[in-house]
Amino acid sequence: MQWLMLLLAGIFEVTWAVAMKYSEGFHKLLPSAVTAVTYLASALFLALALKKLPLGTAYAMWTGFGIIGTTVLGVLLFRETLSLAQVGCVVLIAAGIVGLKLLA
Fold first, then answer.
1. What's 94's DSSP letter?
2. If you placed Cys at 64, which of 17, 28, 77, 97 could pair as Cys (CB 3.0 to 4.6 Å)?
3. Strand, coil or helix: what is 26?
């Protein structure tokens, strides 16, 4: 169950980051509200996951989910570009998440 909580925390983290981009500096009401609600949801689910998971593992995975998710959505939604080096680094982050899950 703690892994599901951590996954939900990661999904909400990506959601608030994307909503913040859409809010245009908190000048648009709906994306700003989505940012606030999903930010709190992300923190709540991370806190629930931390009841059973080690802090270092959970936090590294949570931030890793955020990095991977926002990178992918940045490319898909905002036409951001990535260099080959950036792609390689994101792949290394993904490998780190898999390693943490397998070893935790």
1. H
2. 97
3. coil
